[in-house]
């Protein structure tokens, strides 16, 4: 029997939300519109640190499932797991990543450990154990472990191997909040994947192009490139689905690695895998984005359009992949 009653659950916004935080409201509207198309009744609810209140409200709705769109709690990425943890404890089915998957992938270092164990290539990283010895000629990027949407990430986080700032960071950074990763100077790809009745579908490959980045200006999708509409980076960073005639082998590798990521991380519903490809054509997995942004200018929505998959079909496939509905 098809589910008939849903709650769209999203994070409570701070009083003056930044663009990356407020973006969830557009996503809620998109899901609401598509649930209406599918004939599914829905309510919307915010998730906050007042978990007793959230629990009581959830139980009063008696939903058949939750469309989980919680991207953080109290504007903190490291609390994102609280929503699936509460839903698990209440035995309410929910879309997208499981509690375990969300917890692991929201920590970039835990995710890299899982990638290594699962045979997925990823860039070298340093997390405070042993001595950090930068390699001559390489660059490194200091990243927040728990934040999503490139919060706290911009080109001032990138260092050459010989810069004094890098060694200062290596000695002083807090391994509970940050880590150091090798910066891969090469192409960047965001590959979306969507559940289906016959297994997941890897959607058309999307590459992020950096135009007029001169000299050694780092090519990266930092916060400025994603959210500051008045910046050089925002204006000169664009997504394309047009690939080169010699890209066939690389695209096959990306497809294979994206499917493998689905299995290694036990993904559900939908996800996006981000890659950097080095100068020799070797893809490195940067991040696994569980429950990725579905705003109309986001990579997942664009990839569905490129694949000719209507968004109500995508939503249907996400709902049908809730573990208890399979």
Query: Number of DSSP strands?
Result: 13
Number of helices: 11
Helix content: 25-40%
Q: Ranges with pLDDT <50 over ≥5 residues?
A: none
Overall pLDDT metric? 93
- Our estimate of the beta-strand percent is 15-25%
Report how far apart the termini are. 12 Å
Give the helices and strands as they follow along the chain: EHEHEHHHEEEHEEEEHHEHEEHH
Rg, Å, rounded? 20 Å
3D shape: globular
Main sheet attributes: strand count, strand direction, barrel closure: 6 strands, antiparallel
Structural class: alpha+beta
How would you summarize this macromolecular structure in one to three sentences?
The protein is 34% helix and 22% strand. The strands form three sheets. Strands 8, 9, 10, 11, 12 and 13 form a six-stranded antiparallel beta sheet that branches. The protein has 326 residues and is α+β, with helices and mostly antiparallel strands.
Keywords:
326 residues, alpha+beta, six-stranded antiparallel beta sheet, four-stranded antiparallel beta sheet, 11 helices, 34% helix, 22% strand
Characterization of the model:
34% of the residues lie in helices and 22% in strands. It is an alpha+beta fold and 326 residues long. The strands form three sheets. Strands 8, 9, 10, 11, 12 and 13 form a six-stranded antiparallel β-sheet that branches. The longest helix has 19 residues, at 19-37. The protein starts with a strand and ends in a 6-residue tail after the last helix.
């Amino acid at each position: 029997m098809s589910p008939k009653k849903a709650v769209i659950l999203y994070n409570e916004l701070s009083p003056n939300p930044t663009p990356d935080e407020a973006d969830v409201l557009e996503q809620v509207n998109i899901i609401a519109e598509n649930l209406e198309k599918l004939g599914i009744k829905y309510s919307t609810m915010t998730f906050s640190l007042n978990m007793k209140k959230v629990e009581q409200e959830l139980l009063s709705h008696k939903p058949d499932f939750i469309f989980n769109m919680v991207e953080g709690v109290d504007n903190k990425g490291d609390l994102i797991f609280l929503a699936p943890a509460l839903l698990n404890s209440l035995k309410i089915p929910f879309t997208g990543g499981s509690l375990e998957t969300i917890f692991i992938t929201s920590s970039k270092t835990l995710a890299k450990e899982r990638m290594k164990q699962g045979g997925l290539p990823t860039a070298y990283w340093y997390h405070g154990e042993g001595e950090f010895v930068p390699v001559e000629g390489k660059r490194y990027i200091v990243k927040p472990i728990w934040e999503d949407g490139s919060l706290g990430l911009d080109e001032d986080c990138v260092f050459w191997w010989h810069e004094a700032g890098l060694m200062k960071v290596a000695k002083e950074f807090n391994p509970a909040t940050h880590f150091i990763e090798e910066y891969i100077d090469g192409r960047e790809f965001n590959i979306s994947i969507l559940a289906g009745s016959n297994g997941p579908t890897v959607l058309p490959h999307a590459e992020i192009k950096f135009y007029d980045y001169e000299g050694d200006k780092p090519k990266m999708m930092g916060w400025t490139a994603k959210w500051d509409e008045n910046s050089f980076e925002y204006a000169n960073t664009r997504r394309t689905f047009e690939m080169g005639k010699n890209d066939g082998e690389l695209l096959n590798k990306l497809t294979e690695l994206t499917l493998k990521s689905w299995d290694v991380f036990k993904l559900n519903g939908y996800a996006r895998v981000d890659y950097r490809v080095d100068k020799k054509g070797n893809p490195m997995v940067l991040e696994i984005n569980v429950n990725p942004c579905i705003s109309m200018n986001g990579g997942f929505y664009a990839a569905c359009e490129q694949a000719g998959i209507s968004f109500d079909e995508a939503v249907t496939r996400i709902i049908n992949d809730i573990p208890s509905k399979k």
